[in-house]
Input
Amino acid sequence: MRKHNVRHVLWDIPEEKVGMLDADFLIMRMLSYGSVPLMIEAKRTYGRDYLRRVFGSLKPTSMSARRYAYVKNILLA
Output
């Protein structure tokens, strides 16, 4: 995953700490705040099953209802 693609979903994390982030946290941020191409890149990098597991741990209120439906029914279907 390219660092410059992920940087906009990690706006509150200092750049020197980005490398130490847990993959689950990074995926949660990408699913909640990332663009569609970034979510597709995450799916290619981590795999659909891993994304499904992380998505299952998210609260439905962590993202808009429209985004939640897209991720659940289109991206992870």
